[in-house]
Write a structure and sequence with these properties.
The complex is a heterodimer. Chain A is of the alpha/beta class. Helices cover 46% and strands 20% of the residues of chain A. The chains are: A alpha/beta, B alpha/beta.
Chain lengths: 183, 374
Amino acid sequence: MIEHFLVGFALLLGLFGGYLIASSRWQGKRSERPEDVRRILLPFTGTEISRRAVDAALRLARAESGTLMPAYLAAVPKQLPLDCAIPAEAAKAMPMLEAIEQRAAAQGVPVDSRIERGRSYRHALARLLEHETFDRVVVSATATGAAGFSGDDLVWLLDKAPAEVLILRPGPSDEARLTASRA
Amino acid sequence: MDRGHYKIFLGMAAGVGKTYRMLQEGHAEAAAGRDVAIGYLEPHKRRETSDQARGLEVVPRRSVPYREVTAEEMNLPALLARRPELALIDELAHSNPPGLEHGKRYEDIADVLAAGIDVFSTVNVQHLESLNDRVAELTGVTVRETVPDSVLATADEVVLIDLTPEALIARLRAGKIYPGENIQAALDNFFRIENLAALREVSLRQVAEDVESKRLTLHQAEQVGTREERVAEEVPKAVGERLLALIRPQPSSQRLVRRAWRSAQRLGTDLDLLWVKPPGKPIEGEVERQVTALRRLASVLGATLLIEEHDDVVAAVARVVRERGSTYIMGGESLPARGLARLRTPLPQKLMRATPPGVDVRIVAHRGLKDGES
């Protein structure tokens, strides 16, 4: 009787040990799994971004189980080297990227953000297009030219971007902007 | 011979009143019975400044032919021969024309101080070498006449002449800084509220750091050597925090880097980013993409990305902490432990044991959604 109990106990112990080892290995593999997902690029400048553009990009990312790639475009003054550190621009970008990440997290969308430098916003975008791959670009057109991308920029983007470009036309809800202070 | 006492009046831009204040203090010293002389004054055709200089002896300038013009420069030999107790020397960042004793006026001032003469001088913050790039980034204007930061560090006193951007612009509009025909150009270019606000912040920070470093240096009373050596060598050790962020080539690390950078900015420290790479694993595919993204982010932020190949994360981190002199370690949250991993000692505790005493370990929470947000 005692022998049967001991054998049974040993069997249970072995099974439990096997489970622990298997689960810890699975955990290791889980963290190393490469991400082969669709990427939605959301370029922006300045300290605010159209909430409509963010929401559109998030809807797309969620529908396609993709990753949102918000990219802050920074213009480096011509007196400075293009690859110099830009703490003042970075300080503007950080809260915006945090705000977008918060909004994305609320909808369960993964985020992989960027800050890109260039001599102008368009140049920064061109550099981003050169070394990153993505499936869609979401940009917000602007009627005022004060924020977002100008008509020329959008024509240029349609010509150059190796991805589908979704341009949101200016609308009344553009007044609702995502700013760092709201995050 | 004791070195003279050195006082610098620091401003965020032309027109804040550095020279005026220097002259005011010169008058006060003269009224107190001291022998005061103006070594060099640049009133920029400002009547208030010229009026303030009245009553103070001026050591005549010397004419120096340069290219096809004649420059009026400070006469260093004459000032040294005159030997006042206190010399007022405007614009320490000025570059001298070739042929004079030194290339820069701050070097002339060093001679005056070495002769035991006290010096009051002036400088704008954008002339400081380490801030030149930052100021250029903020304002789009690059200043060519720069001075090493050590010049400020060697001053016995640094006085910030502070003025709100609005007040400075009001002075400019009233014609108190530039003649009428130049006012609009100045308003359109350098003298914009956002530029001046940024410069003011840089100036305030600079003086705060200077005060902090001098306060700490005062505690090193038993030190030997000159004051210049003490400031140059001991301040980095005394106030030199260094932050090390432990990252992995994955998107969530970007957020950790941003948090670490913001902390580093608040502490005024340098930031290192460390990825301990498992040995033998090639950097390719998604990993390569993420490493490239982190490298670019590090470059934007002025941080240093380190990749150490090691099979023991704790040992590798401990070595880097010792080599780089890190005082803070920041890491992200680990995945919830499963299986046998539950029995292991958590990484932060291992790091606390393996790193030198005095190194803080901080875990950055995954703040996916703040409380109360929808």
